[in-house]
């Protein structure tokens, strides 16, 4: 039976819109079909390093694969597209985070589901609310809309008109 997987895409180096298109193709080829995409949002980078704004998006896909193989494929896609993990919160060509895998709660050395920072990041919550406002977080039991309303993140997140 196919599982529903929510993935956050982010990047601030290179032609991010073109990189996202490559990500879609790779995900559909290696993991499964994309069923929904949020708009793309522009967000100021946060953390200790001066860097360009990020573009962010959330996609939903279905897969027959288990969570850890999906995460391994996402990390391989990042690497293939040129991601080098140097500095936490540093600039990156692509960042792929698994947010949810069905309603599973999982913690392994490779993966934490749901992603532990969802409720703290408006650049994730805003696109999530756009495509799945009523989705319930399996730990907090709050909807994405409720989590966004409670978020203390003051970062400006602007929807791009493409």
Description:
There is one protein chain. The chain has 4 helices and 8 strands. The chain is an alpha+beta fold and 162 residues long. It has one domain (3-117): 7,8-Dihydro-6-hydroxymethylpterin-pyrophosphokinase HPPK (Alpha-Beta Plaits, 2-Layer Sandwich), CATH 3.30.70.560. Strands 1, 2, 3, 4, 5 and 8 form a 6-stranded antiparallel sheet that branches. The protein has a two-stranded antiparallel ribbon with strand order 6-7. Helix 1 (16-30) packs across helix 2 and helix 3 packs antiparallel against helix 4 (144-150). It is globular, with a radius of gyration of 15 Å. The model has no long low-confidence stretch (mean pLDDT 92).
Question: Characteristics of this structure?
Answer:
162 residues, alpha+beta, Alpha-Beta Plaits
Strand content: 15-25%
Rounded to the nearest angstrom, the radius of gyration is 15 Å
Count of domains:
1
| Gross morphology | globular
